[in-house]
Design goal:
single chain; 85% helix; mainly alpha; 162 residues
Length: 162
């Protein structure tokens, strides 16, 4: 009878060791997966930051051009609104720069490029009047937003530069 208990004890120890080995293997696998997930997340953050830095470089260029009156306000606000809306790591840009986004909202439905060429003279004059009215109404807001945007963009580029 004592041989039975000895074999049972030996069998129990073997089972416990096998389960401990298997548990250790699973814990290593979980640790490896966590590490891979962390690396993937870091790579994604780097990619998003790289995208945003590229966008912000363009925003800075357009902002300077608008401040130096090398770019029309309507065209600049259009471009800035699209660029700022494409940022991946920053949100609520329309709340931060209401003048720029406000002007864009007022002119985005107006015809441009080839679509403008197909308009009659009267339609073009009507759209030009709408554009000029919107520009006059938002001019001071846009000027203020350009200064804030220049400062904001410069700071963000510094933060995103490794």
């Amino acid at each position: 009878m004592s041989d039975f208990w000895l074999y049972a004890l030996l069998f129990g120890v073997i089972i416990v060791l096998a389960l401990a080995f298997y548990a250790g293997k699973l814990l290593k696998q979980v640790a490896r997966q966590k590490e891979q997930q962390a690396q993937a997340k870091q790579a994604q953050e780097l990619a998003l930051n790289k995208h945003d830095k590229k966008v912000l470089d363009s925003v800075l260029l357009i902002t300077r051009a608008m401040q130096e009156e090398q770019c029309e306000f309507d065209e600049g606000c259009w471009r800035l609104s699209v660029l700022l809306s494409s940022l991946k790591t920053l949100t609520e840009m329309s709340d931060k720069f209401p003048g720029i986004f406000g002007l864009y909202e007022e002119i985005k439905s107006l015809s441009i490029l080839d679509a403008r060429k197909t308009l009659t003279k009267k339609e073009r004059m009507r759209e030009d009047y709408q554009r000029i009215t919107a520009l006059n109404k938002r001019h001071d807001e846009v000027v203020i937003d350009l200064d804030k945007l220049f400062q904001f963009t410069t700071e963000q580029i510094t933060l995103l530069t490794p």
